[in-house]
Amino acid sequence: EFPSQNPKAVQFGLHPQLAQLEMLVNPTVETLQSDDNLANSGTLEIIPLEQPLTLFVWSKSRVVPVRLTDFSITEEAFDVNLNPIRAKVSLGMRVLSVDDLGFQHPGGRLFMTYLGNKEQLASQAQNVAISVLGLAGLP
């Protein structure tokens, strides 16, 4: 739609957006070259470098730090230059908590805010008697 308003989409299709997503799971060329230079100079890195913090934003009150566990892209349709114009992206994520990040880490603080919001929401739910499940009581 509107090729004159979207020249990059005409030139590249969805490649730029797909590349951005792929950068969530791949290190940069600069990082790899730096690590290789350190290894070649005999420098041993004991502690792995911290990865950029990935956030999953569901809404303004539901922002959680995550680690991507699964990632795949299926390009489904292409333009005449074989640029993808339709793709399906599948993401698997694990929410990171203060157990993973610590309380002082920005991601840990985001998790605590998310958890506090969830507790407030849960307090708005009405208590339901176990009898609605057809049970007289717990065994």
> Could you state the order of secondary-structure elements as H and E?
HHHEEEHH
Largest sheet properties: 3 strands, antiparallel
| Rg from Cα | 23 Å
Number of helical runs?
5
Point out poorly predicted stretches: none
* Terminal-residue CA separation: 62 Å
Beta-strand percentage range:
25-35%
Structural domain count: 1
Give the strand line-up of the largest sheet: 1-2-3
SS elements, strand count: 3
Word description of this protein:
The protein is an alpha+beta fold and 139 residues long. The protein has one domain (3-124). It contains 5 helices and 3 strands. The chain has helices spanning 7-12, 15-22, 29-40, 98-101, 106-123; strands spanning 54-59, 62-78, 84-95. The chain has a 3-stranded antiparallel sheet. A hairpin with a 5-residue loop joins strand 2 and strand 3. The longest helix has 18 residues, at 106-123. The chain starts with 6 loop residues before the first helix and ends in a 16-residue tail after the last helix. The model has no long low-confidence stretch (mean pLDDT 89).
Features:
alpha+beta, three-stranded antiparallel sheet, 5 helices
